[in-house]
Structure prediction request, 678 residues.
Amino acid sequence: MSRKAITRVQAAIIIVVIVAAVAAGAYLSIPKPAPPEIGLVPQAFQPFQDVRIRKAFTLAFNRTAYIHDVQQDFAVPATQIVPPGMFGYDPSIPETPYDPATAKQLLLEAGATPITPANAFSKDKPQTIEITYNIGNTARETAATILANTINSFGTETGLFCKVVGLAWPQFLQFVRTKQTNVFFLGWIVDYVDPDDFLVPFAHGTAGTFAIRMGYNNPDVTKLIEDQARTKDVAAREQMIKQIETKVNDDYTFLFMNYGTAFSLSRSWLQERVGASVASGLESYNQAIYGFYFSEMTKDPKAPNPDSIIEETIGQPDTLDPATDYETAGGAVIQNVYETLLFFKGDKADQVVPWLASSYDVSPDGLTYTFHIRPGITFTDGTPLDANAVYFSLMRALIMDDPDGPAWAMAQVIRGGANYSKQYNNAGPSAPNGYGDKYTKDELDDLINAKPVEVIDPMTVAVHLERPYAGWSFVMAFSIAAIVSPTAIKAHWTAPTDGTPYIDGVTAGDYHNELNAWPAENMVGTGPYMLKSWDKASQTVILETNPNYWGGPESRGVAPVKNVIIKGIDDPNTRVLDLKAGTSDIGGIPVTGGLIFQFVDKDTWFSQHKLVSLSPDYVVFPKQGLWPVFATYFIGFNEKIYTYGPLPAQAISPSALLSELLQLPVLNSLLSKIDMGL
Prediction:
């Protein structure tokens, strides 16, 4: 039974029934429940289990028209998982052509000879597939419409149609996470500069964020991903990556749309500080940093709201906890409030420098990284940064092991991580046949005893790896390695009472902060800004300066602008009007529909690919071309779609069902709040 299969109220009802049955020693056949439905069950129509349908959808997308007409040439066509400029990218892999005739023929064949009844459709029994995008992203909305129109153009002959559905960002993420989407649009932006950071999420069958969400599991691809990460032979690794890309393309689970590019558009009263130690995102850009680094910005005192930087963008964070957040809206906030032992220097995505660490050493065998922590740094709750805080933060991410979060980046290579993580489910000392899908005290003890993180002295920490890994320094600069205040987390943590293992302040398997929600909405870090508020109803995050900020390794001091207001404004036209009116300083202006050409010269862009502002009121960077971004945007085809519906009837021992129910975090949370005397 899924950990998330039932709602709180339904859990309470079921538990009462089961307890009574257990007392009577009965065995139950669970009847089909009456509405409301209580579980996620496989959808009856599973079209994308058939590779012919996946291929047809891929061939039905006019990528060239999308890049030019929708993206206005502000994007680069994508052909594979790994983006250009990163090791492993293969320029010889061709674009998938736009071929609607072949797409139609494939759908006719798939309809005539379905591989299973779940794939069946015909003119007499038509089916509709929903294409989902996040509201406010006009490029994705238009792309969805382009794809739907092509499929629908021969729908009367094939019996297969498409419907475009827009969802608010949090709801969209939830639907993707729970596999309720047929077709969805997403992108992957670099965490750390190594092809593993792209190959694992996309294509690793048991650890990949997207692979899991889409039911994609090609054992050959998974093995190749693991093998290429272990090899020290550069040429052999490059060849294995090429094999991975070829096999993934042949599986047609992903329709690769475009690679990322970036530019900044802001009011001219906002500028980058001279000698910025970190690329602000205004005049300089770092491919490894999400969005803006606000402490490296200044604002003209004569400008409206001179004490606030106001950014308008799309949506809002999923969570503000670095152990669980895995999307750009949250990441952009996290990097301004929390800090890591290492971070990126200026605009160099391939260079990290000591940050919270004053220095670090790597053992000759490449298995141990020893970090020496800077003295005198405090969290915004007044507690000192020390080795124990580093130990707590890194171990917390590993122990929570959120399958939708970024913990895999550490778990895949840190000592004991892959044994413990349910994403890898490897065998370990207490479970020679594999750990399964539950967390036990023995398994947690195995992780702790493996000493992935070790306190050497009050200001020194060692991190131990299973194998040498060239990308590890970049992992330590990624948000998963952000250092949080143990004092703050522990003060708002509740220990489980159902036998779930834990250490002080951290519960094993606390997926998406279900068991302890406080860190998802509150932040206590060492960075230049502090979280003042997050109003989810208005999609507004407000940051204020950390008055005791230590200044970073180059002693930059306290951030010059007191407040940062990040507003999620889903309507692009509103963002355009606000930037023009000066009520926002930075506007996320889409290129779709040509809105960007209300600010930059259109003819110059298309003729020379130069961004020239139409008014001195606005500044745009870079001046020539665009900043390249390590990002791959794609359309995903879900091979196993779920929907809410009645769970199937099954004969089950009530005591076994009770044991299963007691493992559900939502039920544990509910029972802790219910007076059982009632």
